[in-house]
Protein backbone atom coordinates (compact mmCIF):
# COMPACT_ATOMS: atom_id res chain seq x y z
CA UNK A 1 0.00 0.00 0.00
CA UNK A 2 1.24 3.45 -0.87
CA UNK A 3 2.13 5.42 2.24
CA UNK A 4 0.13 8.63 2.13
CA UNK A 5 1.01 9.78 5.61
CA UNK A 6 4.71 10.58 5.46
CA UNK A 7 4.90 11.96 8.98
CA UNK A 8 2.95 11.31 12.16
CA UNK A 9 3.62 12.08 15.77
CA UNK A 10 1.82 11.88 19.10
CA UNK A 11 1.57 15.43 20.44
CA UNK A 12 -0.24 15.22 23.76
CA UNK A 13 -3.22 14.06 25.77
CA UNK A 14 -5.70 16.50 27.22
CA UNK A 15 -8.53 16.13 29.72
CA UNK A 16 -10.11 19.48 28.95
CA UNK A 17 -9.90 22.93 27.45
CA UNK A 18 -6.67 23.85 29.28
CA UNK A 19 -4.89 21.11 27.35
CA UNK A 20 -6.03 22.11 23.88
CA UNK A 21 -3.60 23.53 21.35
CA UNK A 22 -3.91 27.17 20.41
CA UNK A 23 -3.38 27.42 16.64
CA UNK A 24 -5.36 27.12 13.39
CA UNK A 25 -4.59 23.54 12.37
CA UNK A 26 -7.80 21.63 11.51
CA UNK A 27 -8.72 18.67 13.71
CA UNK A 28 -10.50 15.44 12.85
CA UNK A 29 -12.14 13.75 15.81
CA UNK A 30 -12.46 9.96 15.89
CA UNK A 31 -15.46 8.64 17.80
CA UNK A 32 -17.00 5.21 18.17
CA UNK A 33 -17.77 2.41 20.51
CA UNK A 34 -14.96 0.96 22.54
CA UNK A 35 -13.14 -1.76 20.57
CA UNK A 36 -14.41 -0.61 17.16
CA UNK A 37 -10.88 0.12 15.94
CA UNK A 38 -10.25 3.87 16.34
CA UNK A 39 -6.69 3.51 17.56
CA UNK A 40 -6.02 0.66 15.12
CA UNK A 41 -7.10 2.90 12.28
CA UNK A 42 -4.69 5.64 13.30
CA UNK A 43 -1.90 3.07 13.35
CA UNK A 44 -2.92 1.57 10.01
CA UNK A 45 -3.10 4.98 8.35
CA UNK A 46 0.28 6.08 9.65
CA UNK A 47 1.87 2.65 9.27
CA UNK A 48 3.02 2.96 12.87
CA UNK A 49 1.92 0.14 15.15
CA UNK A 50 3.00 2.01 18.26
CA UNK A 51 1.49 5.43 17.64
CA UNK A 52 -1.93 5.00 19.25
CA UNK A 53 -2.27 2.57 22.12
CA UNK A 54 -4.45 -0.39 21.32
CA UNK A 55 -5.86 -1.12 24.70
CA UNK A 56 -6.65 -4.56 26.01
CA UNK A 57 -8.61 -2.85 28.80
CA UNK A 58 -11.25 -0.78 27.01
CA UNK A 59 -12.86 2.13 28.80
CA UNK A 60 -9.75 3.01 30.73
CA UNK A 61 -8.63 6.15 28.94
CA UNK A 62 -10.55 9.31 29.64
CA UNK A 63 -8.42 11.68 27.61
CA UNK A 64 -8.34 13.08 24.11
CA UNK A 65 -5.12 12.18 22.31
CA UNK A 66 -3.76 14.56 19.67
CA UNK A 67 -1.67 13.37 16.71
CA UNK A 68 0.08 15.46 14.10
CA UNK A 69 -0.40 14.25 10.53
CA UNK A 70 2.09 15.33 7.85
CA UNK A 71 3.60 18.16 9.89
CA UNK A 72 0.59 20.33 10.45
CA UNK A 73 -1.59 19.26 7.52
CA UNK A 74 -4.19 18.27 10.12
CA UNK A 75 -4.48 16.65 13.53
CA UNK A 76 -6.26 13.47 14.43
CA UNK A 77 -7.93 13.45 17.82
CA UNK A 78 -8.46 9.97 19.24
CA UNK A 79 -11.30 9.88 21.74
CA UNK A 80 -12.03 7.25 24.36
CA UNK A 81 -14.66 4.79 23.23
CA UNK A 82 -18.22 4.92 24.46
CA UNK A 83 -20.56 2.12 25.41
CA UNK A 84 -18.16 0.25 27.62
CA UNK A 85 -20.27 -1.50 30.24
CA UNK A 86 -17.75 -1.38 33.06
CA UNK A 87 -17.31 2.37 33.31
CA UNK A 88 -19.26 3.69 36.25
CA UNK A 89 -21.62 6.65 36.32
CA UNK A 90 -18.99 9.12 37.43
CA UNK A 91 -16.59 8.14 34.64
CA UNK A 92 -19.39 8.31 32.09
CA UNK A 93 -20.16 11.83 33.24
CA UNK A 94 -16.54 12.93 32.97
CA UNK A 95 -16.33 11.37 29.54
CA UNK A 96 -19.39 13.12 28.21
CA UNK A 97 -18.45 16.47 29.79
CA UNK A 98 -15.08 16.34 28.09
CA UNK A 99 -16.51 15.22 24.76
CA UNK A 100 -19.36 17.73 24.80
CA UNK A 101 -17.01 20.55 25.64
CA UNK A 102 -14.71 19.59 22.79
CA UNK A 103 -17.41 18.96 20.20
CA UNK A 104 -19.48 22.02 21.03
CA UNK A 105 -16.76 24.63 21.45
CA UNK A 106 -13.56 23.64 19.66
CA UNK A 107 -13.06 25.94 16.66
CA UNK A 108 -10.38 23.67 15.14
CA UNK A 109 -12.85 20.76 14.86
CA UNK A 110 -13.70 20.44 11.15
CA UNK A 111 -14.73 16.81 10.75
CA UNK A 112 -15.84 13.83 12.79
CA UNK A 113 -15.00 10.33 11.68
CA UNK A 114 -17.51 8.02 13.34
CA UNK A 115 -16.48 4.38 13.34
CA UNK A 116 -18.97 1.52 13.46
CA UNK A 117 -18.33 -2.22 13.44
CA UNK A 118 -19.49 -3.58 10.08
CA UNK A 119 -20.57 -6.84 11.67
CA UNK A 120 -23.18 -5.37 14.00
CA UNK A 121 -26.26 -3.26 13.98
CA UNK A 122 -25.45 0.20 15.41
CA UNK A 123 -26.26 0.36 19.12
CA UNK A 124 -28.33 2.91 21.01
CA UNK A 125 -25.05 4.63 21.86
CA UNK A 126 -24.11 4.82 18.17
CA UNK A 127 -27.50 6.28 17.34
CA UNK A 128 -27.18 8.81 20.15
CA UNK A 129 -23.76 9.87 18.92
CA UNK A 130 -24.88 10.22 15.32
CA UNK A 131 -27.93 12.28 16.31
CA UNK A 132 -25.75 14.47 18.48
CA UNK A 133 -23.32 15.12 15.60
CA UNK A 134 -26.23 16.02 13.33
CA UNK A 135 -27.76 18.28 15.96
CA UNK A 136 -24.54 20.28 16.15
CA UNK A 137 -24.22 20.16 12.36
CA UNK A 138 -20.77 18.64 12.48
CA UNK A 139 -19.61 17.18 9.17
CA UNK A 140 -19.43 13.38 9.49
CA UNK A 141 -17.76 10.54 7.65
CA UNK A 142 -18.94 7.11 8.79
CA UNK A 143 -16.27 4.42 8.60
CA UNK A 144 -17.26 0.77 8.92
CA UNK A 145 -14.43 -1.33 10.39
CA UNK A 146 -13.48 -5.02 10.35
CA UNK A 147 -14.38 -5.55 6.70
CA UNK A 148 -12.02 -8.55 6.78
CA UNK A 149 -14.45 -10.29 9.15
CA UNK A 150 -17.38 -10.17 6.72
CA UNK A 151 -18.30 -12.84 4.24
CA UNK A 152 -18.72 -11.61 0.68
CA UNK A 153 -22.52 -11.94 0.84
CA UNK A 154 -22.72 -9.89 4.05
CA UNK A 155 -20.98 -6.76 2.78
CA UNK A 156 -23.90 -5.10 0.96
CA UNK A 157 -26.45 -6.36 3.46
CA UNK A 158 -24.59 -5.03 6.49
CA UNK A 159 -23.90 -1.70 4.85
CA UNK A 160 -27.62 -1.29 4.23
CA UNK A 161 -28.44 -2.29 7.81
CA UNK A 162 -26.05 0.36 9.13
CA UNK A 163 -27.22 3.06 6.73
CA UNK A 164 -30.87 2.34 7.56
CA UNK A 165 -30.37 2.13 11.32
CA UNK A 166 -28.45 5.40 11.54
CA UNK A 167 -30.61 7.01 8.83
CA UNK A 168 -27.47 8.30 7.17
CA UNK A 169 -27.77 11.50 5.20
CA UNK A 170 -26.60 11.36 1.58
CA UNK A 171 -24.02 14.04 2.44
CA UNK A 172 -22.31 11.74 4.96
CA UNK A 173 -19.57 9.59 3.52
CA UNK A 174 -19.56 5.86 4.22
CA UNK A 175 -16.34 3.91 3.76
CA UNK A 176 -15.81 0.24 4.58
CA UNK A 177 -12.31 -0.58 5.78
CA UNK A 178 -10.10 -3.18 7.36
CA UNK A 179 -7.31 -2.15 9.69
CA UNK A 180 -5.95 -5.66 9.47
CA UNK A 181 -5.43 -5.92 5.70
CA UNK A 182 -5.54 -2.10 5.27
CA UNK A 183 -8.24 -2.22 2.63
CA UNK A 184 -9.57 1.31 1.91
CA UNK A 185 -7.54 2.93 4.67
CA UNK A 186 -6.07 5.41 2.18
CA UNK A 187 -9.57 6.22 0.92
CA UNK A 188 -10.37 7.57 4.37
CA UNK A 189 -7.27 9.76 4.20
CA UNK A 190 -8.33 11.11 0.80
CA UNK A 191 -11.84 11.77 2.06
CA UNK A 192 -10.51 13.62 5.12
CA UNK A 193 -8.29 15.81 2.91
CA UNK A 194 -11.20 16.50 0.58
CA UNK A 195 -13.46 17.56 3.45
CA UNK A 196 -10.74 19.71 5.03
CA UNK A 197 -9.82 21.15 1.64
CA UNK A 198 -6.14 20.40 2.15
CA UNK A 199 -3.73 18.91 -0.36
CA UNK A 200 -3.30 15.15 0.26
CA UNK A 201 0.03 15.08 -1.57
CA UNK A 202 2.82 16.15 0.74
N1 LIG B 1 -10.14 -8.13 12.29
C1 LIG B 1 -10.01 -6.85 12.59
N2 LIG B 1 -9.73 -6.48 13.85
C2 LIG B 1 -9.61 -5.15 14.13
C3 LIG B 1 -9.80 -4.16 13.12
N3 LIG B 1 -9.65 -2.95 13.71
C4 LIG B 1 -9.36 -3.18 15.00
N4 LIG B 1 -9.34 -4.50 15.28
C5 LIG B 1 -9.09 -5.13 16.61
O1 LIG B 1 -10.08 -4.68 17.52
C6 LIG B 1 -9.56 -4.49 18.83
C7 LIG B 1 -9.80 -3.08 19.34
O2 LIG B 1 -9.10 -2.15 18.54
P1 LIG B 1 -8.76 -0.67 19.06
O3 LIG B 1 -8.12 0.01 17.92
O4 LIG B 1 -8.02 -0.69 20.35
O5 LIG B 1 -10.22 -0.11 19.32
P2 LIG B 1 -10.63 1.36 19.89
O6 LIG B 1 -11.81 1.79 19.13
O7 LIG B 1 -9.45 2.27 19.86
O8 LIG B 1 -11.06 1.02 21.39
P3 LIG B 1 -11.06 2.01 22.69
O9 LIG B 1 -9.73 2.70 22.74
O10 LIG B 1 -11.32 1.11 23.84
O11 LIG B 1 -12.19 2.96 22.49
C8 LIG B 1 -8.06 -4.85 18.72
O12 LIG B 1 -7.91 -6.18 19.14
C9 LIG B 1 -7.77 -4.69 17.24
O13 LIG B 1 -6.70 -5.50 16.80
C10 LIG B 1 -10.12 -4.60 11.77
O14 LIG B 1 -10.30 -3.81 10.83
N5 LIG B 1 -10.20 -5.94 11.58
MG1 LIG C 1 -8.48 3.41 21.36
TrEMBL record:
GO terms for molecular function: GTP binding; metal ion binding. Keywords: Cell cycle, Cell division, GTP-binding, Magnesium, Metal-binding, Nucleotide-binding, Septation. Its cofactor is Mg(2+). It comes from the Bacteria. GO terms for biological process: division septum assembly. GO terms for cellular component: cytosol. Belongs to the TRAFAC class TrmE-Era-EngA-EngB-Septin-like GTPase superfamily. EngB GTPase family. Necessary for normal cell division and for the maintenance of normal septation. This is Probable GTP-binding protein EngB. It comes from Mesoplasma lactucae ATCC 49193. The gene is engB.
